[in-house]
Amino acid sequence: MTKLPPHVQRARRPEHKELRLAAIVDSARSLALEKGVRAVTLTDIAARAGINKSAVLRYVETREDIYLRLTAECWSRWAAALREALGKRTDGTADELATQLCRTVVDQPLLCDLLAHAPLHLERHVSADAVLAYKLAALAALDDMTTTGARFQPVLEDGEVRELISTTSLLAGALWQISNPPEALARLYAEEPRLAHAVVDFLPRLTGAARTMAAGLAVRAG
Amino acid sequence: MTKLPPHVQRARRPEHKELRLAAIVDSARSLALEKGVRAVTLTDIAARAGINKSAVLRYVETREDIYLRLTAECWSRWAAALREALGKRTDGTADELATQLCRTVVDQPLLCDLLAHAPLHLERHVSADAVLAYKLAALAALDDMTTTGARFQPVLEDGEVRELISTTSLLAGALWQISNPPEALARLYAEEPRLAHAVVDFLPRLTGAARTMAAGLAVRAG
To answer: Is pTM, for the whole model, over 0.90?
Structure first.
């Protein structure tokens, strides 16, 4: 993102070290938003941050470590966005909760992209400490969202709200990859009428599934 | 799988070519079942099939092409297994349909593993022709399962059955990766009580979500 001034590049003081880590994470974030998580290399991130690749590895373990930190950060932003979207209401419905979950996740394209990468790639290329820190942060966000969602509406209890959120996050991760196909496949979708059924429009498809899930949970709860 | 006799290795006749392709696909299948799709390389597959790596590339485009062929094959096996499980009944429920969908998919660990890899990796490393052939095969299996599922029970119509199947397949793909964590993470799950909530038991979790989805679809349909 922003190249650091030379005195920060050396990073002798703790506050400079934090600035450097922030520059690395910011660079990884902006690159992933531009071209997708899959396409970003550690070399790209180092170049954008204006830091040597070997120096980057003094602040983070791997490329995957950077993206796992960003996944944790995105989960906590999602929790904050849901809190803000639901406000102080306590008379909501499970259906509204499902809709707001989807609206707030689609506002975070980086999270949507990272959700499938985390278990498939990111968690597999970091230390146990890094994966533990990530898992605890994601679970804390899920707990927060569960509390928020349970307070918002009187029908679903904590366990059901939690199931709704975690299933929505799994579907969001899978649907994001399918609704953002590689160029060659996107061209096929546009040209080949037999593939009309395979095209996925992310938000409507996710919202449809989350609302159906909420309706099913409400039936069981009732 | 099986090393081919020398006269087949040369593969001058069409039936020998088919035998070679089958040996390559069989080797990829057995290796993936042993150590997971992620870990299998083209070199592994060639070695197990007893064919030179460069010769393998005369029969398939890439490692991903082989696994995309296997994904198509697995989809059609899933469709056949569902047809067999549901039999000739027409008085089933949406709940039974959801349960049978999950039982038949868990019987195919290779499909469960491939479901997340297909959009994330496989479709991105093959030609347009290969991805088209795969998509058409998967859509044909989905059509077949939709017909089977709609006939089995009188509540959900074709569109709803199709939604149930495709959502179940997306969840199966995501949950499989999470419920089969890398060794370091599995150890963390076992040792760290704070992660108790993060452990996922594949079949019960998938079946719970699919049944909830079916209940929600039935409410809408009714």
So the answer is: yes
